[in-house]
Write the structure tokens for this entry.
Amino acid sequence: MNIRHRHDTIVRTLRRNGTATIDELAEEVGASRRTVLRDICALRDDGFIIHSESGRGGGVQLDPQSMQTTARLSVAEVFALLISVAVMRAAQSLPFSNLADSGLAKIEKTLPSDKVRDLRRFLDCLHIGQLSPKQDLSDLGPIDPALLPAFEIGFLQQLHLRFEYRDAKGAKTSREVEPQAMLILQPLWYLVAWDPSREDFRHFRMDRISKPECINDAPFRRRHVPFADDVCPYNDLPR
């Protein structure tokens, strides 16, 4: 059980049982007493109020009104929230946009400075435009959930991305590209990448990408992507 899962399990156990001994928590999460004691300290640092009762029959107790005050969201998770709001706003289907912006701002304030830096670099790669009404959407499929974590590494570390791609005719090829931007033409999402083998930019529909993986090689350089006039970067969207 990883650290995040252990912490979540400890909090749920204390909320459910009221009081628990360190031994009981250690058995619940499958870890040593020492590890659980470190977890309790970490949870307190996160803002949870956890009381300790010494002596026979004692244990630890979570304050019923206690809640986490620092976010443990990953950069990819916050990015997913931001782009969801951005897409809904662009489609003019977000009736409570001010509240959404306020909530996201609070989340951003709780992020460590290094995560904020990575999040802003990630958002710099995001562009949104309008889909042509003539676009054929009959073969629209789901997007591989492994794609966003791969994008996080590829975009932030500027590493090549390898994946299998299925074109409009169903033919499959293996591609290795430099991820440069993400383009959302709702409901179509595209990876905009520089293809070294073709020495040009290529747009890959994300629902046609599978088995994405980053390649640990020399970082590539960022390139200016020549978007059409109706495509705007995320930060230029009305807020």
